[in-house]
Every structure is written in structure tokens, then in C-alpha cells.
Design goal:
The complex is a heterodimer of chains A (383) and B (450).
Chain A (H helix, E strand, L loop, with lengths): L14 E6 L4 E8 L2 E10 L5 H5 L7 E5 L3 E2 L10 E2 L2 E2 L11 E3 L2 E2 L12 H7 L3 E4 L3 H11 L2 E7 L8 H7 L12 H4 L5 E3 L6 E6 L4 H9 L3 E6 L4 H5 L5 E4 L10 H12 L4 E4 L1 H9 L4 E17 L5 E12 L9 E7 L5 E6 L4 E4 L14 H8 L3
Parallel strand pairs in A: 3-4, 4-8, 5-9, 8-10, 13-14, 13-15, 15-16, 16-21
Antiparallel strand pairs in A: 1-2, 1-11, 2-10, 3-11, 6-7, 12-14, 17-18, 17-19, 19-20, 20-21
Chain B lengths: L8 E5 L11 H14 L4 E5 L15 E3 L5 H11 L3 E3 L4 H13 L2 H5 L2 E2 L4 H8 L1 H10 L7 E4 L2 H11 L3 E5 L9 E3 L2 H14 L5 E5 L5 E9 L5 E9 L12 E3 L6 H18 L3 E9 L6 E7 L4 H10 L3 H9 L26 E7 L20 E7 L2 H11 L19 H9 L5 H11 L7
Parallel strand pairs in B: 1-2, 1-4, 2-3, 4-5
Antiparallel strand pairs in B: 6-9, 7-8, 7-9, 10-11, 10-13, 11-12, 12-15, 13-14, 15-16
Helix pairs in contact in B: 1-11, 5-6, 7-8, 13-14
The chains are: A alpha/beta (383), B alpha+beta (450).
Chain lengths: 383, 450
Amino acid sequence: MGAEPYLQEYRETRRALLVLEDGSFFPGWGFGATGKTTGEVVFSTSMVGYPESLTDPSYYGQILTLTYPLIGNYGVPSYEDKIRGVPIHFESIGIKVRGLVIQELCRRPHHWASKRTLDEWLRDEGIPGIYGIDTRRLTKKLREKGVMLGILEVYGEGEEPNLDRLLKEAENIPDPNLTDLVKDVTVGEPIHYESKGGKRVVLIDCGVKGGILRNLIMRRVDVVRVPYNLSLGEIMEYKPDGILVSNGPGDPKMCRETIHTVRELFNEGFPIMGICLGNQILALALGGDTYKLKYGHRSQNQPAYDLETGRCYITTQNHGYAVDLESLKETELKVWFINANDKTVEGVRCEGKPVFALQWHPEASPGPYDTEFLFDEFLKRLG
Amino acid sequence: MPRFEWLRKVLVLGSGPIKIGEAAEFDYSGSQCLKALREEGIETVLINPNVATIQTDPRLAGKVYLLPVTPKYVERVIERERPDGILLGFGGQTALNCGVQLAKMGVYEKYDVKVLGTPIRAIEDTEDRELFRRAMIKAGIPVPRSRSATSAEEAVEIAEEIGYPVILRVAYTLGGKGSGVAHNESELREIVNRALAQSMITQVLVEEYIGHWKEVEYEVMRDYENNCITVCNMENLDPMGVHTGDSIVIAPSQTLTNREYHILRSASIKVIQSLGIVGECNIQWALHPRSEEHRAIEVNARMSRSSALASKATGYPLAYIATKLAIGYLLPELINKVTGITTACFEPALDYVVVKIPRWDLRKFRNVDPHLGPQMKSVGEVMAIGRNFEEALQKAVRMLDIGKIGLVANEGDDEPEPVEKVKDVLRRPTEERRFKVVKAIKMGISIKER
């Protein structure tokens, strides 16, 4: 019998501070990397799936708060488990959030697939995290006032937080939504995920989640993943059977080139499927409008109601912007799904054309798999 | 779809007396059910001989028959009251069994009573081990693998195929006499000869052993149009070998990854859809501790102890909504009672954890074996909510009213005890186990030692 390793307490010595643009602040303890970060502070109510969420490119530019209080219980798996080069346990290689805000950090994860702790993972990738704050208070504030810009700083050992300085800096936080975030998360050069004899889909990568790729690969689709700013001519060279416009971060109106190209692709008569940002881009391309939601939809429990069949599906969502319902009246798009809670647009389709898009994530990951059948619907439309 | 318009009068079967293995949760589910019917202007008739319940209060049920929930009495009530429909899922196992017997007797046809919600065939599929097994295999849901053998050689062959460890069950003996777990061929040979000798028909069942797998439950709802949600999942602190009713249970699950959580969630929905359950059911899964392998263990096609817990833990009124679904409503048509504006077709996201701890009173009974196993022995339970596991656990132990202020920090916690005695309780659990785990940690016994 050795000493008492299980009783040994781990005491974090680094302080951390989260300050919002409205001057509210949350002192806590630091984990992950030491340093300072800024971004849009958002919250997700997902109870599982932090490895997937943190690597979801749609969170790029944001500081993520998880409302479920116990995070890190099952550790972090390996990037090396892959299917055709796409990681199984993550949505991309590398953490995409700018910072992580949680209530309690698990220091002793226990899971067969775990290779390191959440703390180690964030340290390794230079992402700061704060724990030990009242995330419920923070969430209530964000729900009441809407998402806000914020600064998160993790101080070095023994260093005292400088609240006054951060409060001052919080007055001038650059808004990531005013920049072209997609540029940083799109693929540099086209990647071909070959599948002999399969239908060819050009995937316009605005920050695509691994789950979308895995769903296409498992259905034996021949996928060409291309940068978001490829022109119509360049896309046509691949002779696609269909186009998938992916999810991605930020304000859809920043993706001017993509919106333009999607309009052209539509005119050419290609079958198109849009997911999340891809849904907003399709709506904008066809003359619709988008707007920013107060605090967005970020969870695994959003009900998407099919206006045609009356069926309701539980979906994973991660978006801060939405398609304006009224604006669609002037377009060729018809509302297909609405959110059963707040009645916002969840999906659109084009009558008589093989074109549709969803505001949620049929690829799940993290979240429920209930709407994966929509990938089959897309394949059916490829002719 | 609005509710069935032809429905004017509904008979609800209660659970009868409260006994060990069947706790007071059915009073809760029956009461919610009656409330849900009443607001629809449906006349209610309740059969429940238990006067110590809320549901027999005349303010809840329109008419109460304090009669035993047995086919004979229920038929007489049906004859007299002539209800349009009957609800079987709100009075525990007693009501469910009675409902199936009534179907076999042809009572429903005779008096033109419609079974609301889950159909009889689905109830039978969940109640009979072999029917359940077949239904699951047909739906592509994994169940524990097993085959029967009539000789030692055959048993060895089957075990090789299934993979060790295996559990051997003797056919047609009481109390599992002669059964045992074999981790390798030599252990198997030792057990199998004894087992074959004890079987009246010289037959043993060789089954994949999952006693050490994680036990995870899902509460699932489905309406007549196939819309499904899982209200909550729960993880048992004790593995498969200990009855859920005797387990410490935590909601939501604590050790499952996103993939594991949602693989089991999807499978749960597949189960409820393939069985054709309407309303609510509880599904128990065994999840391999070192892979994503899982097995369906059991389905309760009714409100259960776990549903009552899930309802309290999440604030989602399961019994109330299940009643509305049984009388024809669809999930997206119903309103979430907590927010008052959003839909009932959603899955609660918790920002807290819930711990349930059973309460035993084994000392009050003479000659009772204090060891916990597959048969439920607890007489009640407490539930605590906290922002972390420790808080919820500590609160729950305190509320058990057994003279402890929590799992830790009690007077006399550190009194010396022989290591072997502590280890024995860890190996063969009794109600003392949770405290002995703390003791073992303090004594420095490693997790690997057993």
C-alpha cells in the first residue's frame, strides 16, 4: 500500500479573469495556456462533446462557455484515430475556440480512449481556459443582454490579476464578426477524398466539420474539398454532380465571393445542399437576408419542425445568425423547417430544383444522429 | 393531431399496495396521468386499493374503486363503467401484467375498450425474455449473446465463439443454483459439469458475461407519428451486477463520450420505434467499459422508478406528457410546462447533476442476505441536486436519515478496520459499500486491488 495518491489534491496556482464589454467580470482559476485572448463570448448547453465542440471551426473567433458544469471527465482522445484522413473524435485538427469557460475542470479523467487531460490539451495548443466561475450567472447575463465581446486572461504563477487594465481593454475589443473569419479556417489547397465510382461532390469549405466529411465518405461519395473563394470556372473543372456548402464561423455576409459563386452554381442548375453557414449563404445568394440572433442556438436539443410532414427532429445547432423568414418571400426558396421553439428558419428548399439547406447540423458531432438521413436525401438529388 | 375525439371516459389502473421492489413512484405517475386527462375534460375512473396515495383523492380521479388490480375485479369495473379507453402504463408492473391478462381473456373486445398508448403486443415483446430477444435481433439491436449446450464440449465450443468471460446458467433451477462465471476454459469445465448435473434436462445456457459492464439508462418518449425524444440518460455507479433500484444513479451520465452517449441514444430510439411503444419507456443498456460495444438489457414499457427520477431530475413531466401522447397528441403540439412557451418536443439540457441513493432497511428483516445483487432490496430512495458530483452525493447521503452527515466527514469514519473486511464488502457489495469505498481510498488500497 503506497501513500495516498487518490487523495492528493491538485491546486491551481494560476489566477484567471474574464471581463465582458459591459464591464462585468468573473475572477477564477486558469487552465490551459497562460496568456490573453479576446472574442465573442457565447454559451453552449451541450452536456457531452467538448472535444468535438472545441475543434468545430464554426466556433472560430469565439470564447466558449459550457453551461454543463463538469467538463473534462472523459479526457481527450487522439487525433490519430482517423477515417480517410479525417479525425473520428474531432471536427478538425486543432482547437478553434479562442478560449474556454467552465465551472469545474476534471483533472483525473477516466476513459479508455483518453490520451491526455483537457488541461494538457489546451496547454499544448496554446488556448487559455478559466474555471471556478459561476457559469450559470454568466449564461443568464448572456441570455438577458445577448452575446458580448470579452477578454480572458490567464496569469502566470503568482501573478496578480489586473482588473482595471482588463476593464479598460474591454472597452475596445475587436469584433471578430466584422472580419472574414472563414479565410482562416477554409482549406488552403483542394483535397480530394477519392471514391471510385461514387458521385462527385464539390464541398465548398467555409470551415467544414469533420462530421460532414465522414458522412459523405461513409456514403462512398467522391469528395473534392475546395477553398471557399474558388470561382465557378474552377469548380466546374471538377465536373461535380452536386455542391455542398459547409458550415463556418461568423457573419455570412462577409463571404461575398462564396455568395456570388453559389448564385452562379444555382443558375447552372447544380444540386446544392447547404449546412448552417451554407444555409445562410444560399439564402443570401438567392436574394434573402440574414440577421444576428440575440444569443444564438448552441446546443444538442433544438427541435426542427418539418412544415410539410409535421415531423419534429432533435438537432445539434451552432449558429449566431439566422435567415430572415420574411425575406424569403421574394425568393425562389421556401421554408421547409422551422424551430419549434422560437419559430426561426431551420431549413429551406427550392421548389422543382434539387436545392435545399439546413440551419442545423445533420452530421451531429457532437449531438443526436436523428437527421443524418438528409445526406441520403442530397445523394438522391444528384441524379 | 388533436386528441381522440371519441374518448370520453378512461379507466386508469393503479399499482396497488406499495411494497419492496415497487416504490411510491407510481402514485406520482398515476396522479399526473389523472391530471392530464382531467384537463381534457375526460371522465376518469381509477382502480387502486391503496388508500395511502394521493391519486385516490376525489380531487384527482373522477371515480375511485378501492379494489385489487386483478383481472377479475378490473373486468367487473369495466362491465359497470364501460370506459372508451384504458391506460396500463401508470401503475407499475402490477397494472401492466393485469392489462396483458385482460387482453388474453378478450375483455377489451368484449366491452369495446381501446388500449391507449403502447399496444399489448409491444408490452408482451418487452415482458417475455425470448420475445424481447427476437424483437431486438430483428431490429438490429445487440443483446447479450447466448446459446444452450447439452455437453461440456459443446459449452466450451460456444464459449470460444462468444469469448470469455461467460456466465453459465442452469436451465430450470430456482435461485440460479449451479450458475457461475468462467473466465477461461478450465474454469468453464469445472462449472459446466456441475451445472449439467444439476439441470433436470441436462442443459446449460452459455451467455456472454456483462456483469462488469457500465449500466446506462435512457428515458424515451414516442408519439403516434414516430416523433421521439430522450428526456434524460442516467448512469449507474454500480455496474450491471447490482439492480438499478439498489444502485447509486447519476444523471446525466458522467463517463460517456459524445459518441457513446449518442450511439446509445440513437439505439434507444430505434428500440422504441421498432417495438411501437407510444408514450414513455425506460431502456437499460450495458456498455463495455473499454469499447463502444453495447447490449440492450431490458425495456420497461411503462412509467417506472427511473422515469419518476428522470422527471424530477429534469423537470420534464414524463407521466403527464406520456398521458397526452396516449390520448392522441403529438410531441410538437404539446407545451413544455417549465417554460410555458417552448415545445415539449425537446430534450432537457442540465447545468447541474442529480444523484439518487437508495435507502435500505435490511436490519428490520430477519434472515435477509445483506448482499446486493440482481434482486432489488431497497425500500426507498433520495435524490439530490448539485453543481458538482461531490455536492450532490454528500447532500443525498445526508438526506438518507441514517445518521450520516455525508459520504465523508462523519464521526468514527476513521476507526481502524481489518483490510480484508473492507475488501470483502467491496467485492460482495452490501449497503455499507459506499462508505467502505471511502475507507479503502483512505487506507491506500489501490483501484486495481480487489
